[in-house]
């Protein structure tokens, strides 16, 4: 009999969002050599067996039930690996534009792309079951299984690990106050939020189009050297995204509002197991940058730094647990219909764009297939107007930046031009 896990309030919110947008988390690596197909299939099966949520599927909800549940089978229902030598960009766009079926496991699509310069292993993880860190952890398991290295799983048992209220819920009024203040401040500051100007999109064409750029070791070192005191690379990346949006809209003659609001996903895992346990722990904070900000990157970064520093100190990211858990007494079918309210509030409450950073990582070697030379990651666009989104991942001394646009609003060429403008902004060249 399959094990069951009650969905968390965060899982459920992302399940409901999937009725409006494609909730795909992109995570892919490139290796220096060539991956053996059969060994890779075996490694995928082993990784799925290691992590319960990877082989989860949604149980059909009953009409009046207030909760949906994950069913955890011993094996995946249908673990399919696409193998192709098509152009990388074509496969990437196609893969991330598909919706993993929550009614059968696993909660991802996967493709192996053959390339003379080194193969790509691409995943589309459904965000209801995986966040960025979960994607990193799963890829780590695949690499270890492929190379025959022991994969020791950390963190508490899955049932305990998914108690979001215990992990991030408010415990006292001192927790509630900064969270409430943050939500109130966001509501005021986002009354006239800037929207990214559309360019070449096709309203009849669904799905995503992605562009990737590599910030070289030299470029990355320059960014680190020039960042203001106390600022992080993530602060610089957020500031560069805000300035790029302003530059883009100015070039297109598009309206600029009072602010650029950037959704910044936050990992709710405790520090003791911050890189363990596959599940969805993605809260988010709105980093609201006034459009009156200096167009100088260092000055804009100081504005972002001051905002993110305060949010890190007061634990405001836990707000999403407090808010979502309040609705748990509503029937499942009613809560799903609440997703239909998104367009009514989008112009006021949804951010300009999203930027997610999984940090600098050390994915294990794939044995005789070689070391990981590239890592590409991007979050979904959480609303119809939140395009393009940006994902950052670091390997060695390089940074890999992925830009994800919604085809209905931005063409492939437009996303690439936005990416080029971002690189100019963040490097100063």
From TrEMBL:
One of its GO terms (biological process) is lipid biosynthetic process. Residues 21-148 form the Condensation domain. One of its GO terms (molecular function) is catalytic activity. It comes from the Bacteria. Signal peptide: none annotated. Gene3D superfamilies: Chloramphenicol acetyltransferase-like domain (3.30.559.10), Nonribosomal peptide synthetase, condensation domain (3.30.559.30). Pfam families: Condensation. InterPro entries: CAT-like_dom_sf (IPR023213), Condensation_dom (IPR001242). This is Condensation domain-containing protein.
